[in-house]
Design a protein that fits this description.
By secondary structure, the protein is of the alpha+beta class. The protein has a six-stranded mixed sheet. Helix 2 packs antiparallel against helix 4. The protein is globular and about 45 Å long.
Length: about 200
């Protein structure tokens, strides 16, 4: 998903109103506000969607979609980085009572998020830079990035300020076990995930 920045609109119209207008005019696009800027991402390609589905399975198998937690796609995460900032991770593991943490604009308080995951497309810089700062600021315990461009799977833990103290990239052939703090034992096969997400060549 390529992301284009949109400067704050003229006049008194808030960013969220502008973001919602853009979503209404562009069905299927993802609109986020990060660092006070609106980011618009077109719908993902097929391999992105397949990789995301493949990634859900180990979380569900580990029992994370049940009474204590839920595995969800495209749920809004309210960010502390600006008065109107929010992100929409590709995949999240949230507490089952996330409904109790509703903030506004279909977004939820970061306190109920155990993990967020992004599968990159042409917007890989946003996932690898801007969202690292945003998710660390929100104190999201685990951030996983499937970096399709560089063929790596990144696992970031221990948020501190605007960075994660622990950032470990994994290469094809590695098997990665995510921290048990997410509520279950999830093991990811880096090779399989990256192959599933291999972009189509047009």
């Amino acid at each position: 998903m390529s992301a284009a920045s949109v400067e704050r609109p003229h006049g008194d119209r808030p960013l969220i109103a502008e973001a919602n207008r853009l979503m209404e005019r562009n069905p299927g696009y993802r609109v986020e506000i990060i660092g006070g800027q609106i980011l618009v991402s077109p719908p993902p390609d097929g391999p992105h969607a397949v990789a995301l589905t493949d990634l859900m399975l180990p979380f569900v198998t580990a029992g994370l979609h049940g009474a204590e937690s839920k595995v969800v796609q495209g749920i809004g995460l309210w960010l502390p980085t600006g008065t109107e900032d929010y992100a929409i991770p590709d995949l999240s593991v949230v507490d089952a009572d996330y409904h109790d943490h509703y903030v506004e604009n279909n977004c939820y308080d970061p306190v109920c998020f155990r993990l967020v995951l992004e599968v990159t497309s042409s917007n890989y810089r946003t996932d690898l830079r801007d969202k690292v700062k945003a998710y660390a600021s929100a104190k999201i315990p685990v951030y996983v990035i499937v970096d399709r461009r560089h063929q790596r799977l990144h696992v970031l833990t221990e948020p501190a300020g605007v960075e994660y103290e622990n950032h470990r990239p994994h290469s094809p052939g590695e098997i990665v076990t995510l921290p048990s703090s997410i509520g279950g034992q999830v093991t990811l096969n880096v090779d399989e995930i990256l192959k599933a997400g291999q972009p189509d060549v047009g």
